[in-house]
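Reopening this ticket.

The earlier resolution said the output was attached, but the attachment link was broken on my side. Pasting everything inline this time so it's all in one place.
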Amino acid sequence: MPRETTSQILKRRGLAPHKKLGQNFLVHTHTARRIVDLANLAPHDRVIEVGVGLGALTGPLAATVDEVVGIEMDAGIIRMHEEQQSLPTNVQLLHADVLRIDFNSLVKPGQRLKIVANLPYSISTPFLFRLIEHAPLIDSAVLMLQKEVAQRLTAQPGTKDYGTPTVLLAACATAKQLLAVDPAEFHPRPKVDSVVIRLSFHPQPERVRMVGNFDRLFFSRVVHAAFGQRRKTLLNALHSATLLKSKEDLVRCLHTARIDPSIRAERLTMEDFVHLSRVLCQHGSPPITLPQESVT
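Inline output:
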């Protein structure tokens, strides 16, 4: 879809890209088809699409699978599609905020969610945390993300991009970058590069199976605490979060977990954090409250 056509469609319907909603419409049909191909979908699949927009991805998805459930927050976009009947008959539109919608209501018995999304950059990180929170419900997610966010999700320990999202995602899924998308392929043109990434939750990755069962909520709190002040040593970052009553107890726990108290959080693997959270939990660590939307 040429950029001029996208502009004309929006203008004719009295619509415009909402800066508040972070809307950047995909305008090249070959890229949309490529994304759908990379999603590795089967004809019998039911797919959740986040951010329907003008339907650049919706059309190829609907031609590939039995059912598409499109979640769109822009009332004007919803109204346009309803009035024009512009989407295939196997597409169900939901006017909803994906950051608030009940994921359980989207799941059919015996199935897991398959998600495809051209995400607004403004919601990409909180949406990722929602996926992690609902990991047992999800089969896979193929997402268009800001390149910087995609790099965080696939970062290695010891690098500047490695942080809270990297570790929390690694504990429930594998992440693979699939496709780089140039800013010229959107209207309006964003100021950053984009990357399509695949998150595979089911079947459970071998790395996740190897660590066994653990308290995921407490694990998440430990990770948030460790990266909350990432310039501090691990000991001081965890102590600042009052994970244990005394610093001496915290030092003992770190030694028990065979972790050097003087290192920083980015040196720890996902497995290290799981082990540390188990040790801290055994020593009666009190609950802590940290913002789930942290991107450190």
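Reporter confirms the inline version is readable. The domain at 3-209 is CATH 3.40.50.150 (Rossmann fold). Strands lie at 25-26, 46-50, 67-72, 91-95, 113-118, 138-146, 174-181, 186-187, 194-200.
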